[in-house]
Every structure is written in structure tokens, then in C-alpha cells.
Amino acid sequence: MACKKLGSLSNAMWQRSTTCRVSLCAGLNIPAFACGSFASAGATMNGQNCCKDGHNCGPTRNLAANHNPVAAAVTSHRHQIVGKNRGEESLTKSGRAFSSTAPQINNKTYLWARYNEMKRLVHDLIPPGVCNLLNPSTIYANNEVNLEEVDIYGFDYDYTLALYSSALDEMIYNKAREFLVQHYKYPEGISKYNYIPNFATRGLHYDIQKGLLMKIDAFHYIQLGTVYRGLKPVPDDEVMKLYGGSNHVPLHQVSGFYGKGPKMKQFMDVFSIPEMTLLAAANDYFISNDIEYDPVHLYKDVSDAIGMVHIKGYMYKWIMQDLEKYILRGDETYAVLHRLASHGKKLFLITNSPFSFVDKGMKYMVGKEWRDFFDVVIVQADKPHFFNDCLKPFRRLDSNGDLQWDRIKSLDKGQIYKQGNLVDFLKLTGWRGSKVFYFGDHLYSDLADLMLRHGWRTGAIVPELEVETKVVNTEQYAQSLTWLQALTGLLERMQMNRGPESKKVLQEWLKEREELRAVTKNLFNPHFGSIFRTCHNPTYFSRRLCRFSDLYMASISCLLNYDLSYTFYPRRTPLQHEAPLWMDQLCTGCMKTPFLEEMAHIR
């Protein structure tokens, strides 16, 4: 009996969701533009119209008749056109009898009437003030996490505890360009290429042999329109030729476990932005001046030049000389550490940066006694090797930062350790499993091994979330994306109209769809778009983000907005074959965004 009732309930919910999904959203004052099922539900909206108060307003044909007599005629004969008749055939060939008084309309008129009807619905369903709902200080969950079960919190330093201003990117670019010209003897003309802010985005792939910078989606397809040779886009047809008539890149070429395959390199950390820009500039110089060169050599030399900026300590020196200019929101770092320590949580730091650099930055952000917050501090750890081999032993540093020679039998509070490995770390601390939560910005070097091999909880710091959230909150993005989804759904349902006139209409719609895709992409970055999406698919970066992090956020200060016993629940979004039975599936993106009153304190 219980099974029968459950089955009846499921069927009823399915029927209701397919007849009035927008009504469900409107009845709960949920912005209709965010309804994930909106585009696919359009075919059922013609039977019922949903008012803003959530009540059934009657058949859509009445609404259509008030606005558009052609749409009214279309609605009254919708079954004639969509039923057995699948082409431009005469209605009499379908074998069904129709009233002789019904007006006869052709499929072209019908398609445009449906288009106009859908456009009007989309316009009406986006109320004023619907934007600005997403909060940049939200923590997003890929996996369910109960903070009450977490006893130990670990952190990377750069771009985790310490966030840097974009001015640092230009300094790194300029110094690496100088190394390229003076040390590697590259043409002086490259020096004329100034840094281009916001040219590249994190997560891009670079074809080492072809010298191409591009964005790849979760299914290993290149997003056409985002392939650059130097500073100029490569035409789509040329991209297809370069990759054997397809824009798919085989798995073994895309990347290995740490983001580098035999032919491709994925740039995953924030520090890689200047490197991508310098690669593009150097490629552009050789191409523009018709100078023959080997892209493989160029990639290696640029990579080495960027590395020299770090190895020779230039970046550390710039930051230490002007902490106020380069370090952002240090007071928030102090607030996070103080809160965790005051609640009895154990804290540790594992960073690749040297002690002198970390010490000065932490004193600026947290205070002279910053080490009192941490139970274990490890510098120059050489991640990711720290996490995946056990070759290097721990070394202790004295108060001056000089190496000591004693054997490390314990990791003590107040001491500074260098190098080491995770195997010894686990033995000496006993910190294992999901009671340990580690935060870092690099998905491969910081998080991958910890999640997949050791079962730690992991949190990804993604500073780009702040900027992308602002874009998502704009009215232009909301309107463009909603109409793009609706138009895609219309194309899916109307594609069975095969006649010449219908095909012309569908081609016009496909063209508009491509234009809408370009608009939404350019709102984030005119060259490569969002770091999270390639049109409708997740990016390769997004795939790795979901795989290697339990939670992700713009900065660790987002932790201040949640109680330390808070449980993060990932939003259950329907698989393609699942019926949407829950409200947060019907209106994906609405129910789990922190705009409710109890979360109003989030900045």
C-alpha cells in the first residue's frame, strides 16, 4: 500500500511539474529565471498559464489570444500540427478529421508564433529586482560536510591565507619577460609587449607543440571561439583541421593526474596567469614578424623564466617590501584563525613558500604571535611531492630560519619544519581521515592526493568566484541566459518540422542561439569566458574542482559566515533520466542560495 501511494505521489508530482513548473517557482516567490527545468518545460506551458501568485490562470490560448491572434490560432490547432504531421505535409494526410471552420496556418507561421509566445513568457517571468541574489561570500558544497566532525584545519599560504592584489601579476610578467630577453636571448621586440590584464583565465590548456591556448570542457572538447595563437583567435575551421577534423582532444593528451600530459599543459593556479599571458605575447611576436620558431622550446623557456622569478626570490622581495600594496584582507585571515583556535580546533600550515616570507606576511596579517595559532608549521614542503612520496625527511629550523640536524621524532607546537612528507606527518600527528580539513588554491598540488588517497576533507579557494558572481547577478546575464535556455528548449521541441520553410526558421534560431552563447561568454571574459562553463557544459577546471574539493569558496573568510557545527548539503540536481521531484530540482539555483533573512549578515 505504501509503495502504491508513493508511486501515485511520484506520478502526480511529475504531471504537475510538467504542466506548471513555473507556477511552483512563482508560488514560492522564487525567481523564475533560475528554474533549471524552464527550457524543457516549455512544451507543457502551452496547456496552462501560471500567474505570478502561483494560481492557475487557465489555458494559455486565452493569454495568447489577448496578445496575438496568430498565436491563438496556433494554440487552437496545436495538436494538428505537432501530432502525426511531422513535416510540411497537408493536414488532411494525417488521417484525422478537423473542423472545417479552423483557420489553416503553415508551419513557418506556427513556429514564429511559438517563438514570440515563448519570448513574451520569458520577459514576463523575469520580475524587476530578480538579480543580485547570489552572494559572493557563499560556500558551495560538492559533497556533504558536517563541520562539527572536523577537529583539525590545515591551510596553504599563498592565495589561501594570503590573498594578493592583481598588481603582482604584472610584476611577475615584466620580470619573466626581462629574463626571456636578457638571459635566454629572445628578440628585444618582445619587450614591447606590455602585460594585458584579464587576457587569460585560470584552468586553460596550452598545446605545447602547436603553441595554442584554449579552453576545454569536461568531456575533452575544445570550446570553439576560445583558441588563441598568440594574441589572435584561431578560426573554428582551422581548429578542426589542426585536430584531425574534430575539436575533441584524447584523454591521454589533455593531462595526466597533475595537469600535464605529453602534449597539453593545464594552468591551474592563480600564479599561472602571467605565464599564459607571456606565452601568448611571445608567440604573437614570432608570428607577427614571420620568424620561424619551435613552440616546444618557447614553452620551456617561458616556463623557466617564470620559475626564475620565484626561485630567485623576486616575488617574495616585492611582497615583503610593500605588504600593504600586495596583501589583501589580512584582518579576515586573523578572524578565521582566531575563531577556529578559540573553539578548540587544531591548526596546521603546509606551504611551499620559505619561512622568512611566510613569517613577515603572517605578522602583517595576524600579528607577531601568529605561530601560537598553529600546532604544526611546515615550510618549503615541495607539494605535491610532499603528499605523494616519502623520500624527504622533516628538518627543523631555528628561530633564525637556519636548518638543524636533529632527528625529528615529533612535530611540536612553536617549531618550524621544512620539507618532510605526508607519511611521516600522519605517523607523528595521528591526524587522519575526514576529521582533517585542508584548504588550498591549487586543485592538483594542494587537494587531489589528500582527497583521493587519504580521505581528508578539502576546500578549494577560488578567488574568481567574486567576479563571476557579480556577472551572474546582472540583469543582462539573467535575461540572456534565460532566453538562451528557452530558445534551446524550443529548438529541441520544434526540430521535427522538416520542411524547407521550417528549416530556414530553425537555422535562424540556431544562429541566434550562437549569438546568445557569445554574449553570455563575453560577460565574463571576452577571450575565454567563464572559468566554470563552456557554453552549457562544465569546463575541465569545473570537473576537477568537483572531483578534488568537498567545498569551494572565494576566500577562507567565507568560513566566518557559518557556524562551526554547520552542515553543508550539496544541491541535488537531477540526472538527465530523473524526474524532478524536489523543489530545488525544479528551480535549480534558487533554494540553496544564501539570500534568506538568517544569512543576511553575509557581506
TrEMBL record:
CDD domains: HAD_cN-II. Belongs to the 5'(3')-deoxyribonucleotidase family. Keywords: Hydrolase, Magnesium, Metal-binding. Transmembrane segments: none annotated. This is 5'-nucleotidase domain-containing protein 2-like. GO terms for molecular function: 5'-nucleotidase activity; metal ion binding. InterPro entries: HAD-like_sf, HAD-SF_hydro_IG_5-nucl, HAD_sf. NCBIfam families: HAD-IG-Ncltidse (TIGR02244). It comes from Sinocyclocheilus rhinocerous.
